[in-house]
Amino acid sequence: SLPPSHPPSPVGPLTIQFDLVPPLAVIAARNPLVQAGGFYSPPNCAPRYRTAVIVPHRNRETHLRHFLYYLHPFLQRQLLQYGIYIVHQAGNQTFNRAKLLNVGVKEALRDEEWDCLFLHDIDLIPENDHNLYVCDPDNPKHVSIAMNKFGYRLPYKTYFGGVSAVTPEHYLQMNGFPNEYWGWGGEDDDIAT
């Protein structure tokens, strides 16, 4: 059977704490139904949505642990089928978020016919599980519209960074991210236009 269109067990505003770094063993123990590679499907119903979360990563192990600790239960309460793709850049070259996102999307689309792709910074954790991790079928969606580091306001009107949601069709229509953006910033605003 299908789950209800709105998940039955959202918590609403969440308490997020960064004072302790959860060990990977604790994260795994709290999420026994998550399969190897970060895949989950609700055990008692057919999911309404299939969401891939693509996360560029390098040298941010503390952020990674907090991200997984909070995001797995957040997504499970929404009764989604999901996969979390941590795309790691090795070496000491300048970080290339755009290229990592492109690689992550390519791998995700090889694995599954996802309904939605969430392009997600590793240091952003949703603070309210009424924020559903599903796509608008008609338009790409900027999800991180209120972040604590910006006083819960957008830094500028056309800001599209942090967390964005696109359907695979939208992603293919925009031909992914331009790979020439090195360092942080620019690639997300480029696709917003």
Secondary structure elements and their pairing?
Blueprint lengths: L23 H7 L8 E2 L9 E8 L3 H17 L3 E8 L8 H15 L4 E5 L20 E2 L20 E4 L1 H6 L13 H6 L1
Parallel strand pairs: 2-3, 2-4
Antiparallel strand pairs: 1-3, 4-6, 5-6
Keywords: Disulfide bond, Glycoprotein, Glycosyltransferase, Golgi apparatus, Lipid metabolism, Membrane, Metal-binding, Signal-anchor, Transferase, Transmembrane, Transmembrane helix
Subcellular location: Golgi apparatus, Golgi stack membrane
Function: Responsible for the synthesis of complex-type N-linked oligosaccharides in many glycoproteins as well as the carbohydrate moieties of glycolipids.
Description:
- The protein is of the alpha/beta class and 193 residues long.
- The chain has a single domain (24-192), classed as Spore Coat Polysaccharide Biosynthesis Protein SpsA, Chain A (Alpha-Beta Complex), CATH 3.90.550.
- It has five helices and six strands; from the N terminus they run αββαβαβββαα.
- The protein has helices at 24-30, 61-77, 97-111, 168-173, 187-192, and strands at 39-40, 50-57, 81-88, 116-120, 141-142, 163-166.
- It has a six-stranded mixed β-sheet, sandwiched between helices.
- α1 (24-30) packs parallel to α2 (61-77).
- The longest helix has 17 residues, at 61-77.
- It is globular and about 40 Å long.
- The protein starts with 23 loop residues before the first helix and ends with a helix.
- The relative contact order is 0.17.
- The mean pLDDT is 86.
N- to C-terminal separation?
Answer: 40 Å
CATH class: Alpha Beta
- The CATH topology turns out to be Spore Coat Polysaccharide Biosynthesis Protein SpsA, Chain A
Provide a count of the helices: 5
Overall outline: globular
* Rg, Cα atoms, Å: 16 Å
Order of helices and strands: HEEHEHEEEHH
Quaternary assembly = single chain
Portion of residues in helices?
A: 25-40%
| Structural class designation | alpha/beta
Strand content: 15-25%
Low confidence ranges: none
CATH architecture: Alpha-Beta Complex
Subcellular location: Golgi apparatus, Golgi stack membrane
Organism: Chiloscyllium punctatum
Pfam family, one: Glyco_transf_7C
Membrane topology: Single-pass type II membrane protein
